[in-house]
Amino acid sequence: MEPSSFSCGHVAFVGAPNAGKSTLLNRLLDHKLSIVTPKPQTTRKKITGIYHDSGSQIVILDTPGIMEPKQSLHESMLEITRRSLRECDLIVGLIPMQKGEEPFDRAFATELLDLWIRPSGKPFIIALNKADLVPESTVSDAKNEIMETFRPIAVTAVSALDGRNIDELVDLIRPLLPLDEPLWPDDILSTEPERFFVGEIIREKIFLMYGREIPYSTEVVIDEFKEQHENDPRRKELIRCSVIVERNSQKQIIVGAGGAALKKLGQAARKEIEELLDRPVYLEIFVKIRPDWRKKKNLLKSYGY
């Protein structure tokens, strides 16, 4: 019997906040699965995306960015990343290229490799993301430096934004995966339930619509998710959710004058939720105050951290 040419396994994407992990996941899947905003620390929980092609199934674990923890929420996010490193078969470390004298953040790259990737004992690849920002000669020099300094199995330079070398990354991952048959049907893009992505869409809109500390001090909890009027062919999905904030002043900003900001948030979120679910939605958003929720481990656990 000839060995199977198919490969499958779990791959963890790790890196700093805003390294482009979520954008890369979305590019690989050709589908917006992870929310993406210009602000760092948008991703708070592990998101599992499943890439399929004729020769492989790559179960991708998109992890929160690695940063210095300043509160219990950050510690919980880092534990999610540690758990993902334990669960995976292969690690892809994302290091973003940058303009200026230093082609990438060497100090963080050393921390990422020495404190996170190498201690896991897992095989790893380095992907230099945002390669579209710098000249090709800079990319080539950076790849050589990474290979000589950190000795990964391979180094590639990609652009999650424009799709550069994405196929090359898949070609590097495929032979390193351990299984010879898929774990999931080929029409499954993620193992997360619909209600998870509904909450993420609302959270993304908060990141995009509000400034300063507001996005970081909010959490979204789906309280109710059900169909109503089952005998009505025009029935809408009923979704009730709570936006959690820490202070009354934050609640006032989320709601806005006369409720205008909250209404705008609901309209933007509902439009994308309906596209996701492919059915009409009745969305209710309430704003609740939970003082210092980011520091309280019992609340964090109840919110899924």
Topology of helices and strands:
Layout: E1 7-15, H1 21-29, E2 47-53, E3 56-62, H2 72-87, E4 90-96, H3 106-117, E5 124-129, H4 136-150, E6 154-157, H5 166-173, H6 194-209, E7 219-227, E8 237-245, H7 248-255, H8 260-277, E9 281-289, H9 297-302
Parallel strand pairs: 1-3, 1-4, 4-5, 5-6, 8-9
Antiparallel strand pairs: 2-3, 7-8
Helix pairs in contact: 6-8
Commentary on this structure:
- The chain is α/β, with parallel strands linked by helices and 305 residues long.
- It folds into 2 domains: 7-176, Rossmann fold, CATH 3.40.50.300; 194-302, GMP Synthetase, Chain A, domain 3 (2-Layer Sandwich).
- The protein has 9 helices and 9 strands.
- The strands form 2 sheets. The protein has a 6-stranded mixed beta sheet with strand order 2-3-1-4-5-6, sandwiched between helices.
- Strand 4 (90-96), helix 3 and strand 5 (124-129) form a beta-alpha-beta unit.
- The longest helix is centred in the last third of the chain and has 18 residues, at 260-277.
Order of strands across the main sheet = 2-3-1-4-5-6
The beta-strand count equals 9
Largest sheet: 6 strands, mixed
Task: Tell me the CATH topology of the largest domain.
Answer: Rossmann fold
Count of alpha and pi helical runs:
9
Number of domains: 2
Oligomer class: single chain
Structural class: alpha/beta
How much of the sequence is in beta strands? 15-25%
Taken from the alpha-carbon principal axes, the silhouette is: globular
How far the N terminus sits from the C terminus, by CA atoms, comes to: 46 Å
Fraction of helical residues:
25-40%
Element pattern in H and E: EHEEHEHEHEHHEEHHEH
CATH class (first level) name of the largest domain: Alpha Beta
Any idea what the CATH architecture of the largest domain is?
Answer: 3-Layer(aba) Sandwich
Model regions low in confidence, pLDDT < 50 over at least 5 residues: none
Average pLDDT for all residues:
95
Radius of gyration in whole Å, from Cα? 21 Å
InterPro entries: G_ERA_dom, GTP-bd, GTPase_Era-like, KH_dom-like_a/b, KH_dom_type_2, KH_sf_prok-type, P-loop_NTPase, Small_GTP-bd
Subunit structure: Monomer.
GO molecular function: GTP binding; GTPase activity; ribosomal small subunit binding; small ribosomal subunit rRNA binding
Family: Belongs to the TRAFAC class TrmE-Era-EngA-EngB-Septin-like GTPase superfamily. Era GTPase family.
